[in-house]
Amino acid sequence: MSAASDVAADAGAAQAMTPVLSLRGVSKRFGAVSALTDIELDVHAGEVVALVGDNGAGKSTLVKILSGVHQPTAGTIRFAGQDVTVADPAAALALGIATVFQDLALCENLDVVGNVFLGRELSPFALDEVGMELRTWTLLRQLSARIPSVRVPIASLSGGQRQTVAIARSLLLEPRLILLDEPTAALGVAQTAEVLDLIERLRERGLAVIVISHNMEDVRAVADRIVVLRLGRNNGVFYPDATNAELVTAITGASENAVSRRRARHMDAAGTEGAGA
Amino acid sequence: MKAAELIDRTDERLHRSDSPVDTIRLFLDRIRSGELGSLPVIVGLVLICGVFEGLNSVFLSSGNLVNLLYDSSTIGVISLGIVGILMVGEIDLSVGSVSGFSSALVGVLWVNMGWPVWAAIAAAIACGAVIGLVYAFLFNRFSMPSFVSTLSGLLAILGLQLYILGDTGSINLPYGSRLVTFGQSAFVPPPIAYAAAVLAGLALFATELRTARRRRGADLSSRSVRSIAGRALLLGAVLAALVFYLDRDAGVPWMLCLFIALVLLLNYTLTRTRWGRAMTAVGGNREAARRAGINVARAYTSAFVMCSVLASIGGILASARLASASQQAGTGDVNLDAIAAAVIGGTSLFGGRGSAYSALLGIVVIQAISNGLTLLDLSSSLRYMITGSVLAIAVIVDSLTRRSRLSHGRA
């Protein structure tokens, strides 16, 4: 344990720079299929990392590993400087990893308060509706969210508002890392902008954020770093100033792009040197 | 306190409901978008009462109302269980058989085998719980649709009922015993009944006032003291009037009080406990509930067990009412009435929407129809047809309001 911290210190990472989450050599096999091979990923507090890749690149598998749905076949997960195993979704939540899945998983027949506190209601035998409503307003205010009333059923909210409710719910347990799976996939222009604002607010609050998206524009608008997966492997790390062509090339592998590969390899090496040893 | 300072009234898109005109407009909006609540049932009940009273003036007499409410209590208890199982989006078609089997079991254990009556009742209720556990096991373990498992249960348990009753076919429960008295002639003494009416008003006033104080303390919008007092007064007055009217005949049956107590208990657990929230969530979106950490299998189990237990209790009450446990108990329209009552009262067949009060309202409607038709001396063939049509109308209303809620975004 102490040896590991020494190594981390050798890497020159100040305490503040210790990544909230760092994956080393994470692999996942389903039978004969390698869904993920040797994935390396670092996410720091107050940083938005976008995870992009084509269909079947392994993004969803990676999210499922982090949220405790799947267990990795090999590799280590370090969370807040500790080696951890994420045995099930409850363990992920207990660690401080919250996941907002693509389909949001909200109950349309319950109101906003009911959904935010679903499964974690205050005082189980005489629900504290006032306390829950207050806390819900606090969470929504932290996100500067504009939801007219928390006593309306989810069914009456727009897509962007539902996404807001799902994110507010994930904040209830005060996580340190939040995973957003395709948060803008089903949204219109204005609602997408709303959700991107939300993501920036999460970053301002010092959370580590992983965003999975297909939309290059959204990704470049909000991400601090863009991690590309291709066929289950790391295929480069980019910054928002990367051109669309560079990103698309890395995602699809359509043409051999040695420059981006080389650059990506350098970046990975810089990030992993020491800890990977 | 100005409305603008309240936490939940800051959004300018919100429609205020400060003035009476606004309140009425909001109410109409809700109705148009399919948020009907218990309005159609109450309108239907008034219509039904008007028609039957016009055809036969005995219908609204004190004596007939006492009878009607007494009869409502037995199937009403069964219907409460149906509300619970419909909340999670499943169904139990065997409640009639379970109720008949329970009454037969009480008859056999108590009258034929000489068990103490309480032990026979406890055994029957325990059997109901076991039946519910079996359905839950079949559902959770083998994903057997409740429609099929309870349909086969309907037959199997009816067989069991016939088997334990044997050749005699029918067991008479002793008159004068406490169970039969409870089922036929136990009425609340008027002073207690009036006191209960007043207490109900006071209790409503106290709880709502407490909630309003807490909300005001937390800068949330709250009901005004005047409106709370008005509602409490209305409730107390309506109950007192009902007591007065029933007391002109035999009075308020204790069995009705038991039924209403169960309704209030289920209403509290459904709306104010984590268990009730879990049931609603499972009925609304099972996968979302599972991901929120709710033990979905346990929610289903509790619904199935509660439904079968309430069916047994209803069966025992019915046998007390008839002073007999027979092969006919629980057959015929008990199943249909219990399920129809829940749906007519406003509990959705699609899961996730409903309330304990729907069993109370629905069973009164069903009993009013059947009682009125009996008073008119109509044949049972016509009664079946009319009850069937009412159920069909109730389900159509349920489907239409659901569609309307979806299109108005209130599902």
TrEMBL record, chain B:
Topology in the lipid bilayer: Multi-pass membrane protein
GO CC entries: plasma membrane
What is the protein's major site of localization?
membrane
Q: Which GO MF terms are attached to this record?
A: transmembrane transporter activity
Cellular compartment(s)? Cell membrane
Where is the chain membrane-spanning?
Answer: 36-55, 67-86, 117-139, 146-166, 186-207, 228-246, 252-270, 299-322, 359-376
Which keywords has UniProt assigned to this entry?
Cell inner membrane, Cell membrane, Membrane, Sugar transport, Transmembrane, Transmembrane helix, Transport
| Function summary | Part of the binding-protein-dependent transport system for D-xylose. Probably responsible for the translocation of the substrate across the membrane.
Write down what this protein is called. Xylose transport system permease protein XylH
Species of the source: Ameyamaea chiangmaiensis
What lineage, starting at the top, does this entry show? Bacteria, Pseudomonadati, Pseudomonadota, Alphaproteobacteria, Acetobacterales
